[in-house]
């Protein structure tokens, strides 16, 4: 697992069973303002997620033990706020469909990746994470304050008279 600077609020977890791919990804992303963690298996990735707050998970599709889709589906179930990205050298359309339907992936990136595109997608994924978190916080505040409960909800549905 790569070292993570505590100063980084957002963390990207890179998952691939090929360590040379992980080193290459980490090297290309080291100038981004995010902490980077790595895992060489789905099980290790889930251990990392239990131990560290993570913003984005990027997983290879074809790994020994579990596919990227299986890992990202588990991430979706246990950590629904984490943004999930699938990385693969293979363009099997069924894999993409499964990843969308079962794992709710945010993006699909094909190997070999273009560094500028990968960085742009990660930045967009981090932004998406924060937008969705803010939306969920606002929704919880509304529910907690009872702004739309009981008789108040009826007044929201009533026609405006002027």
**Cα-atom radius of gyration:** 19 Å
Low-confidence segments, given as residue ranges, are 1-7, 149-156
- Find the CATH superfamily: Response regulator
Q: Strand order, main sheet: write it out.
A: 2-1-3-4-5
CATH topology: Rossmann fold
What class do helices, strands and sheet pairing give? alpha/beta
Mean pLDDT: 85
- Using the 3D structure, state the CATH architecture: 3-Layer(aba) Sandwich
Helicity, in percent? 40-55%
Largest sheet: 5 strands, parallel
State the shape.
globular
Amount of beta strand: 15-25%
Domain count: 1
Q: Please report the total strand number as a whole number.
A: 5
Number of helices: 6
The ordered H/E elements are EHEHEHEHEHH
Would you state the CATH class? Alpha Beta
Describe the structure in your own words:
- A 5-stranded parallel β-sheet has the order 2-1-3-4-5, with helices on both faces.
- It has helices at 19-29, 42-51, 68-78, 93-103, 115-145, 151-157, and strands at residues 11-15, 35-39, 56-60, 83-88, 107-110.
- The chain has a single domain (11-130), classed as 3-Layer(aba) Sandwich (Rossmann fold).
- It has 162 residues and is of the alpha/beta class.
- It has 6 helices and 5 strands.
- Helix 3 (68-78) links the parallel strand 3 (56-60) and strand 4 (83-88).
- The model is unreliable at 1-7 and 149-156 (pLDDT under 50).
